Amino acid sequence: MIEKFKNFSALNNENDPLKIDIVGETYCDKTFKIERACSDLNALEFIIDGKGTLDIDGQHLVPEKSDIFFLKVGSRHKYKSDGNNPWHKLWIVFTGDFADSLINCYLPKDTYLFKNCDSVKKYFEEIVEISRQDIPYDLMVNKITINLMHIFMYIRNRILIENADLPDIIRKKLDECVESYFNLDKLCENMNYSKNYIINVFKNKYKITPYQYYLDKKIDAAKTYLTHTNVSIGTISKTLHYADQQYFSSSFKKTVGCSPVEYRRKTRKE
To answer: Which domains does the chain possess?
Structure first.
């Protein structure tokens, strides 16, 4: 087993809201096994590769590549690496009132394993890198706190998405973008799903692609402006983030069957 870590527990102040105790990286072997009857620490561990088992407070879990597992103060647990496919993991041990607040606010109760969290690997890598820098302890804690917050928020957002209707969440995000620039790649990145998955799950429910839905919503918004306001065609085009007025007019006519000017004239007469 190869283990690289730094222990900062001697630098902790009792009144610090967040105490960083140990940060490390471990290349496990078939002998790796840890057991605690009542844990005196909180830890988050990211599995870069390999697999193993975690038994904690009556739950039997199998953390593997790209998963995060959580060890909580007061828990009874034992965990070990698979002998044939041992863990390579990054981890951080932390305590304090702020740590307790993060755990209580962002993590679901009695949940210790979070699957497929590859998007937060960079935050664990940053935490390990910061811990190895020759900087004052207080500055190190401040920098690590930012990365911990990213990890906790990611876990919470993933759980909210998994517990909700994903197509409806996508639709809501598209509705919010009608008067701004929309980027499907950015949406996929923020929601931590592939582009193909987002497109397919949305299309299965609404029978239309997210991008076409977005374009249709922009046309609906344009219709509202044309019918109920005196805002110029050029201003409507800019408000709805079309490339220019000519492209807006062309897109509108292709969808509606008449130009914005004709549509305004027609609806005003009616």
So the answer is: 2-163 (2.60.120.280), 165-270 (1.10.10.60)
Mean pLDDT throughout 51-80? Answer: 96
pLDDT band at 185 (very low <50, low <70, confident <90, very high): confident
8 Å CB contact between 226 and 263 = yes
Q: Shortest CA distance to 148 belongs to which of 19, 55, 53, 49?
A: 19
Question: Nearest to residue 155, comparing CAs of 111, 199, 110?
Answer: 111
Mean pLDDT of 100-110: 92
Rounded to the nearest angstrom, the gap between the alpha carbon of residue 154 and the centroid of all alpha carbons in its chain is 4
Kindly state the average pLDDT of the residues 176-205.
Answer: 85
Residue pair 256/219 in contact by the 8 Å Cβ criterion: yes
Q: Are 118 and 87 in contact (CB under 8 A)?
A: no
Rounded to whole angstroms, what are the CA distances from 184 to 176, 209, 212?
Answer: 13, 11, 11
